[in-house]
Amino acid sequence: MQRVSHQVWAGILGFVSLVLVTNLLLVVACLPLVLLLMTTDPALSWPWIALATPLAAPGVAAAFRAFREHGVGGLGTLRAFGAGLRDTWRRALVVGAGATALAAVLLVDVRALSGGAIGVLVVPLLAVLVLVTCIVALLALVGLSEAPTARWSDLLRASAVLGLRRWYLSAVSLAAFAAQAAVFTTAPALGLGITASVVLYLAWTNSRFTLRPVLDLDEAVAA
Question: Are 88 and 65 in contact (CB under 8 A)?
């Protein structure tokens, strides 16, 4: 019984350490975006935020790699994060840039069409496309953290098809990100210091399960 108690406490302390260290590394990796969000009005500085957002994608993919290594008892958090950056930063940057550019165009169209008669029909469709873009980008980053050399066609097709097929998991991840945005707006220190990596961990867990049919996760863990 005492041994089990020690194992439980070790697991809890290990997860707390993972959360705190990953939060710190995320802040450093996403510093341009963090500074813009904290020091400017997003309604006015959104073009600069759009330019800085892709720079955060490699840090997110590296955090997913740290979560994976923690789950299989591999590299420590710092080394896993560094390995994730090294292996995925180029392709993660492409994912971030592509998703941000597409979402920005769609949101500009939403704003332009929202006042017209056609907006009643088109705006909901554009809003759905923005959400789909976010889902595909999230799953693609998780996929890169698992298989950094995956072909683009396989990665994007799996992210789109499985993300929509298991939409309920994607919805939970998006809801968690919306809650994180609210926390960051009201309590930036809490959002940056604790909840950011917790939300990412939840999104990673959902996304990893979503991609299970193409990742052979059971075999990866056993290896």
Answer: yes
Q: Which amino acid is at 49?
A: I
Are 119 and 96 in contact, with CB atoms under 8 Å apart? no
Report which of 115, 84, 96, 102 is spatially closest to residue 53, judged by C-alpha positions: 96
What is the number of structural domains in the chain? 1
Q: How far apart are CA 61 and CA 89, in angstroms?
A: 8
Which token pair is 151? 């072909």
State how far the Cα of 31 lies from the Cα of 37, in Å rounded to an integer. 10
Which of 50, 60, 140 is closest to 95 using CA atoms? 140
Buried b (16+ CB within 10 A) or exposed e, 194-221: bbbbbbbbbbbbbbbebbeebbebeeee
Name residues whose C-beta falls within 8 Å of residue 149's C-beta, 6 or more positions apart in sequence. Answer: none
Give the range of the structural domain holding residue 55, as residue numbers without chain letter: 2-222
Give counts: helices (H), strands (E), the chain: 11, 0
pLDDT in tens, 110-141: 888 887 777 778 888 999 999 999 999 999 99
**CA 20/CA 194 separation, integer angstroms:** 6
Q: Kindly report, residue by residue over 196-215, the tens digit of the pLDDT.
A: 999 999 999 999 999 988 87
Q: Look-up: residue for tokens 């991609």? A: 211
